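B., you asked whether I could sanity-check this one before it goes into the benchmark set. Here's the sequence:
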Amino acid sequence: MEEYKIPENLYYTKEHIWVKIENDVATIGITDYGQKQLGDVVFVDLPEVGREVESGEVIASVESVKAVSEVYSPVSGKIISVNEDLANDPSAINADPYGDGWIADIQMSDPSEVEDLMTAEDYKAYLEEVESEEEI
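And here's what the prediction gave me:
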C-alpha cells in the first residue's frame, strides 16, 4: 500500500475527510489519500458561514482535473469559518491537506458525534481494506 500521511491526532471518515477537534470546534479537510485520489484540485465551492449543518450533509464541493467530489460534514453544528484562501489557491488541498488545505470550522452542536469517527488506526485499516478491494 502506498504510504499516506495520516496524523495520529485527527479523526477520519470513510469519505476521506479529516477532523481536528479543539474544544467544541471541528476543523475539517480532505485527507492525503482523498486528495491523491482526486488529482489536481482546481476549484473549491466553500460552504456558507453561519449555515447550520447535519452530520453527513453535503457542505462543499471540490473540483479536480478528474472529477467533482462532494464534501460531507462529519459533525452537526454551525459553520463558523471557511478557508477563503482556497478560492485563490485550491491547490493547497493537494500541497498541504492537513494545514493550508483545511476547508471549514464547525461549531459542534453534539460533541458526542466524535465517537462515530475513525481514529488514525481505524482509518489506516480502512484504507488497507479499500486498497485491497481495488486490487481484485
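One thing to flag: The chain has one domain: 11-135. Otherwise nothing jumped out at me.
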